[in-house]
């Protein structure tokens, strides 16, 4: 209360008729101009009870330089709001990246367990895509995200990308069912090699010598890790390579086929449409390659724990859809280079987590090969920057 008393008396003096003579008016203007910044400092510093004082009248504020002070106050408030928004957005982005990593870790663990018990990659892929499609329809039904309006021409352009997305997932599951999780992700670290190759072939993009140089440790590291991998299997190796080719073909061709069409869809809806179309395309492939395997009767005939298997398959499907959706959302908030670096770190986290969980034996040479490949990916991510726009 003692701190507010002088301020209160000053506010009375500003509006008191007794000080409106010539000398008094001049002295009042000086004291007001000196007191108002002090009041603003107190308010900005957290002395909230000062807000209860009677504000000066607008004419007097304008006459005592209050216009400049008010402008400074508005600018300071806007800057504080921007800082608060920036901190909140950074915290939100950090939480999304952590969730992205965790969902990817749990997907690989649960998916590997399901594939070991039920080695049907086409069926598992269809189940995962069906689970994701169900979540998407619920999202649209409860109006958690706007439902997209698609034309036949858009669907025709997205369909080939959905086919690549579906087949890439099939081959990833095929590789995970044959070799260790760590080895699959070491092979998938060679994705930049296919990106450079396909971009040059389809888009006519010529990579720089530095970018080409970053591919050397990637290819060499994958080769070294393959030669010393305990769980090496040719089906697992070529399946992971096919997954790289299909996934990067999807990414490169999306620029060529969609053009500006994807601008009609936001990132979430583009991923959602891809998921649903991928599921529809996976059904005939599943029936042709494996038939109907994911039925209670068949699972009971194998002697597997039906409840545990279904729970793990559902969790794998949820994590699969969740981490891919988060990847699209993160990419919409950061640059492609930042996303590539984060994806490289994610692969390291997945490899280390899977090695610890499954107790995968790794030799020193194998670890060096994996490290070289991941180091090359990180270097590639830093070098592969967007070309500056011409003025």
TrEMBL record:
Tell me what this protein is called. Sugar phosphate transporter domain-containing protein
| Alphabetical UniProt keywords | Chloroplast, Membrane, Plastid, Transit peptide, Transmembrane, Transmembrane helix, Transport
Instruction: Classify the source by domain of life.
Output: Eukaryota
UniProt feature coiled coil, ranges: none
One GO CC term on file = chloroplast membrane
Report residue spans for region: Disordered.
1-26
Membrane topology recorded in Swiss-Prot or TrEMBL: Multi-pass membrane protein
A Pfam family cross-referenced in the UniProt record is: TPT
Question: Matching InterPro entries, A to Z?
Answer: EmrE-like (IPR037185), Sugar_P_trans_dom (IPR004853), Tpt_PEP_transl (IPR004696), TPT_transporter (IPR050186)
Q: Which GO terms describe its molecular function?
A: phosphoenolpyruvate:phosphate antiporter activity; triose-phosphate transmembrane transporter activity
Localization in the cell: Plastid, Chloroplast membrane
């Amino acid at each position: 209360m003692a701190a507010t008393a002088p301020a209160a008396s000053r506010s009375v003096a500003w509006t008191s008729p007794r000080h409106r003579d010539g000398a008094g008016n001049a002295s009042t203007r000086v004291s007001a101009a000196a007191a108002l910044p002090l009041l603003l400092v107190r308010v900005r510093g957290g002395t909230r009870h000062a807000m209860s004082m009677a504000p000066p009248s607008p004419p007097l504020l304008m006459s005592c330089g209050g216009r400049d002070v008010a402008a400074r106050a508005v600018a300071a408030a806007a800057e504080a709001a921007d800082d608060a928004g920036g901190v909140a957005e950074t915290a939100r982005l950090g939480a999304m990246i952590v969730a992205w990593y965790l969902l990817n870790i749990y997907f690989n663990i649960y998916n590997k367990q399901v594939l070991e018990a039920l080695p049907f990659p086409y069926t598992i892929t269809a189940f995962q895509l069906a689970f994701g499609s169900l979540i998407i329809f619920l999202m649209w039904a409860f109006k958690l995200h706007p439902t997209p309006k698609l034309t036949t021409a858009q669907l025709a352009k997205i369909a080939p990308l959905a086919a690549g997305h579906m087949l890439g997932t099939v081959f990833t599951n095929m590789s995970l069912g044959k070799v260790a999780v760590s080895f699959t992700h070491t092979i998938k670290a060679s994705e930049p090699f296919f990106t450079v190759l396909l971009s040059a072939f389809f888009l006519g993009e010529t990579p720089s010598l530095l970018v080409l140089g970053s591919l050397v440790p990637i290819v060499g590291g994958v080769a070294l890790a393959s030669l010393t991998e305990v769980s090496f299997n040719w089906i697992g190796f070529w399946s992971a390579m096919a997954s790289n080719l299909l996934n990067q073909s999807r990414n490169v061709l999306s620029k060529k086929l969609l053009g500006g069409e994807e601008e009609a869809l936001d990132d979430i809806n583009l991923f959602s449409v891809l998921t649903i179309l991928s599921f529809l395309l996976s059904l005939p492939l599943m029936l042709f390659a494996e038939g109907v395997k994911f039925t209670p009767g068949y699972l009971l005939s194998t002697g597997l724990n039906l409840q545990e298997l279904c729970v793990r398959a559902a969790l794998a499907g949820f994590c699969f859809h969740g981490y891919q959706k988060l990847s699209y959302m993160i990419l919409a908030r950061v640059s492609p280079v930042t996303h590539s670096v984060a994806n490289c770190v994610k692969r390291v986290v997945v490899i280390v987590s899977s090695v610890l969980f499954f107790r995968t034996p790794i030799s020193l040479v194998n670890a060096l090969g994996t490290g070289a490949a991941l180091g090359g990916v990180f270097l590639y991510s830093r070098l592969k920057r967007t070309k500056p726009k011409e003025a």
